[in-house]
Amino acid sequence: MYKTDIGVVGAGPAGSHLAFRLAKEGRDVLLLDDSHPREKPCGGGISVLALQKFPSLNDYRSLGHSTDLFQLISPRGRIAKVSGNKEGFIISRRILDEALLKKALSWGARLIPAYVREIERDGDRWILGADGERVECRILIGADGVHSLVRRRVIGKIPIHSLSLTSGYFITGYPDDIQPIIKFTPFRGYIWAFPRLDHASVGGGGPTEKAKIVKASVKEFLDSFTFNFEIIGKWTCFIPFISNPKFFDLPCAGEDWILIGDAAGHVDPITGEGILYALWSADLAADAILNSNISEYDVSWRKEYGKHLKIGSRLSKIFYKSYVIETIIKIASRNRKVNKLLYGILGSELSYDRLWGELLPRCL
Q1: Sign of the C-alpha dihedral, residues 188, 78, 178, 334?
Q2: Which of 17, 42, 307, 327 has the CA that lies 20 to 30 A from 144?
Q3: If you write DSSP's letter for every residue of 221-239 in order, what string do you get?
Q4: Backbone angles phi, psi at 147, to 5 degrees
């Protein structure tokens, strides 16, 4: 049996960053994950705010595709090119996840490449069963994604109505002169085409009950490309996409457990951005553990970004109405202030207070 102080289930950005923070301070931390690093089905966008909060991400910029320009397309085909003064970038999740995991291991974190199938309590310890291995830990971290076993064990799974189905392709042949595209759909979601270093991610997301429509819409979008491309991968997965603000009242920490990243449901309810909140929640969880006050985490994440997530979940129902999207893109195509405001929202630089106070009133 392996014994550790802190057991982290999941070695994606959230789990790896938390392990790095703790191992750097000399804490005994063990990661359990049989899949990372791997190419995660998502856009792979690193926002401006993520770069501001975690400047070390710039170390990987050369491995991705930098951009300060997005082409937005409304459900009816109206186009607005939105831009800003700061560049984010788009990167393969295999490359990013591998870099973050290696960083954690280089500071002394350990990794067991096994899938956790069982979680039990034994007095004041957690016992994890993972592909024949047994792990005993004092503090349990759920960084194991949207279908988190840790979450199911401590507070219950994320409800199906709080998930978005995403489906898409990895392709080669995406031209260098075509900027990233975000095409909004009549249902609550959008389709994207994000160029990376050696391929592009083309996908889309929407309500789980619209699964067939989401997949068909992405395929139709892909078939509309006029350049030659090759499909090198196809995928379908789920992400948290919370439309009920009360979801964020649920606890993400207990006496000896913490949920971070997708396992906590900490994904932007409008843009779907997850990498920022994976790292941010991991940082706050590390602070709480290092301060020997786990309950501090539930206070700190709500203080730092919980309000943003709550407001976003409320506004998502308004934002994704087709007539609102049409009006926003129409105004952004000819009004520089609104154009920059929209870019700031896409880059997570601006709060949703400003979306409600400055942008939506122009469209309602």
Answers
A1: negative
A2: 307
A3: HHHT--S--EEEEEEEEEE
A4: -100, 30
The pLDDT of residue 277 is above 70: yes
Exposed e or buried b for every residue in 131-164, given b needs 16+ CB within 10 A?
Answer: eeeebebebbbbbbbbebbbbebbbeebeeebbb
What pLDDT, on a 0 to 100 scale, did the predictor assign at position 91? 96
At 96, is the pLDDT very low, low, confident or very high (cuts 50, 70, 90)?
very high
Strand partners, 72: 80, 182
Distance of CA 291 to the CA centre of its chain: 26
Extract the tokens encoding 147: 């279908």
Q: Which CATH architecture has domain 1-364?
A: 3-Layer(bba) Sandwich (3.50)
Token reading at 40: 């995660």
pLDDT in tens, 187-218: 889 999 999 999 999 999 999 999 999 999 99
Measured between alpha carbons, how far is 346 from 273 in angstroms, rounded to an integer? 9
Q: Where are the domains of the chain?
A: 1-364
Half-sphere exposure of 341 (CA within 13 A, CB side): 21
Nearest CA-CA partner of 112 in 99, 139, 130, 138 = 130
Q: What is the DSSP letter of 104?
A: H
C-alpha–C-alpha distance, residues 236 and 251, integer Å: 29
pLDDT digits (tens, 9 = 90+) for 282-318: 999 999 999 999 999 999 999 999 999 999 999 998 8
Residue partners of 256: CB distance under 8 A and separation at least 6: 124, 126, 138, 139, 140, 294
What letter would DSSP give residue 334?
A: T
Cis peptide before 55 (omega within 30 of 0): no
Torsion angle defined by CA atoms of residues 73, 236, 278 and 28, in that order, rounded to the nearest 10 degrees: -160
Give the Cα separation of 71 and 51 in Å (integer).
21
Nearest 5°: CA angle at 133, between 131 and 134? 125
Chain mean pLDDT for the chain: 93
Render pLDDT for 313-336 as a digit per residue (tens, 0 to 9). Answer: 999 988 899 889 999 999 999 989
